[in-house]
Amino acid sequence: MSTETQTSYDPDQTTTMTMREAIRQALREELDRDEDVFLMGEDVGHFGGVLDVTDGLYDEFGDTRVRDTPISEAGFMGAGVGAAATGSRPVVEIMFSDFLGVSMEQVMNQMAKMRYMFGGKTEMPITVRTTEGGGMGAASQHSGTVHTWFAHFPGLLAVTPGTPAAAKGLLKTAIRSDDPVFFFENKMTYEQQGEVPTDEEFTIPLGEANVEREGEDVTVVATQRLVGESLSAADELDGDVSLEVIDLRSLYPLDTDTLVESLNKTGRMVVADESPLSYGVHSEVVARVMENAFFSIDAPIERVGVPDTHIPFSPALEGEVLPDAADVRRAVQRIT
Amino acid sequence: MVTIDIETEDGRREALRRMLTIRAFDSTASDYFADGEIPGFVHLYIGEEAVGTGACAALEDQDYITSTHRGHGHCIAKGLDPKYMMAELFGKRDGYCNGKGGSMHIADVDAGMLGANGIVGAGPPLATGAALTAQQKGEDRIALAFFGDGAVAQGQVHEAINLAATWDLPAVFLVENNQFGEGTPVDLQHNVQALSETAEAYDIPGFTIDGMDITAVYEAVGQARERAASGDGPTFIEAETYRYRGHFEGDPQPYRDDDDVARWRERDPIETFKDRLVDRGELTEEEYEALREEAESTIEEAVDYARNAEDPAPAEAYDDMFAVPVPEIEQFADRMRADGGTR
Ligand SMILES: Cc1ncc(C[n+]2csc(CCOP(=O)(O)OP(=O)(O)O)c2C)c(N)n1
């Protein structure tokens, strides 16, 4: 998908930074660039965000641009929707994605439907940031991966950065977009390092996957933390099986072309995403390639994800349900 | 033009004309719904005209309102054109929402009307958001949320008021207590005596007014607007009113009897306002009849317009999802429609 936000930037100017820093930098640059942008959420201001993502922005931009809200997800999500419909560009943070349920009326019936129901007579330039995923021993109510709900629901766009560069570029595009974009950060990726373009015009169009590593034998389509895990699996299998690793990046819209192109080359595919396995991202990827490249498929497509459980507390249990590089490797081995 | 100065003779006449237009619109909608020409659900505002009209008269053109599933009156009060409203009820392309919204979703964001709403209690957070935009940008505009007595039980309504109160947003929360939430009387839904007691919890002004009296509504909302616009935050107003019709058209109404309706009709908001103007020598009965006929012919013209308007083309069902269209929608739609062939 092409968006108006596609601009040229200098790809040679980069700095190594963490995912957390990349997200913060995107927020800072967009707050700086456009006065209509403001952040709101629980503890995003004074406190700097429970996982430190918005740290420092309150001091820099003040309490009207970085707003601490009462603990009322339905209320401030709705206020974000009303603000977006009237000319603001709110970036709403939901502290943990598990709390999105509390705000869902405003998401499902207002944010997602207003433009359509009104015959196109309003825009909805809202971005919702939230953090997903297990790995911190935070138990079931603070570890969920729920991006599938939003990718499934008509009227919403959903992105899942797998690298710091993807996080910065996609978040800037999301904030500049006139459509509602859900931006899903995996909490175990905040410390992940990567090269990130420093150009303030660096944006990544929604709906473009990225080939992170080229390979010949098996395509691994991964999201968020599992991009890094799949790259590790590729290293481990190097010389034995050659993996092509794709960061899916955008769940909706979905870059069918890149997936098909890769599958046409390798004939085999593994889909790795931390959401529950039934009816999810995995299934959609499989359906798309089946519809568009059926005769290139040489082996059953494998899924790596959470086996339809919630995320347990005990490290002994959590490690069992969370997918990692070993799961990707085993999936590859099953089809080669 | 939305604003009406009820303190002038012309303004009072305009207010009366607007109430008559609402009543004519909804009576006509009732007929065409009964005939089967209007599909879906239709919830009428008859009996409550003084609330919407009085409130919108006290607003400025640039102000926002949010509405409810019973929104026709709010639309007309806010100055929307009955022609395009009726076209929307008939599902036509020229309707306010190109036929995608219908009775429950009429909106005109440019006119400050942020939509009727099919979800009870969803409007107040949106009004809080519109008020937030006004505050952020330093604009001289406020947002008023209309909502029902039933909606006062919804959690998100309280979250919205708390947020607006905490941030001193330029908002007004106006409950239309028409005595019922669907078929359940208000006293079975709330423990408080007056819904305006709600305001105490947020430390904002709250009062209950006579919603059958347009002047009372105008004055209360006027004061609330002033407070909001000067940065002192929201006000909570409960307007006591009554809906003459069922909850929706076709409602058998086992929950009340005709006497109740008759008793409230004695204080009909249009009749009492007219009588007052006649008493003051501002209006004759003949002039009133002429206003009424004018309102009715406005609505007849709206129906003619709606009937003759075009239906949307089926493929328009795929328009307007996003500002920047996604390829998925087109591809899925094309694929669904493609005929099979033998391979
Ligand atoms: C969240 C939600 N729950 C239930 C309904 C069904 N419903 C539609 S209108 C209504 C009653 C609303 O009563 P009130 O807020 O007093 O408004 P009124 O109809 O009296 O104008 C109900 C229960 C709904 N539309 N939305």
UniProtKB/TrEMBL annotation, chain A:
Its EC number is 1.2.4.-. One of its GO terms (molecular function) is oxidoreductase activity. Gene3D superfamilies: 3.40.50.920, 3.40.50.970. Residues 17-192 form the Transketolase-like pyrimidine-binding domain. Its cofactor is thiamine diphosphate. It comes from the Archaea. GO terms for biological process: organic acid metabolic process; sulfur compound biosynthetic process. InterPro entries: THDP-binding (IPR029061), Transketo_C/PFOR_II (IPR009014), Transketolase-like_Pyr-bd (IPR005475), Transketolase_C (IPR033248). Keywords: Oxidoreductase, Thiamine pyrophosphate. Pfam families: Transket_pyr, Transketolase_C. This is Alpha-ketoacid dehydrogenase subunit beta. It comes from Halomarina ordinaria. The lineage of its organism: Archaea, Methanobacteriati, Methanobacteriota, Stenosarchaea group, Halobacteria.
Automatic annotation (TrEMBL), chain B:
CDD domains: TPP_E1_PDC_ADC_BCADC (cd02000). One of its GO terms (biological process) is organic acid metabolic process. Residues 274-308 form a coiled coil. Keywords: Coiled coil, Oxidoreductase, Thiamine pyrophosphate. Residues 18-314 form the Dehydrogenase E1 component domain. Gene3D superfamilies: 3.40.50.970. InterPro entries: DH_E1, PDH_E1_Alpha_Subunit, THDP-binding. GO terms for molecular function: oxidoreductase activity. Its cofactor is thiamine diphosphate. This is Thiamine pyrophosphate-dependent dehydrogenase E1 component subunit alpha. It comes from Halomarina ordinaria.
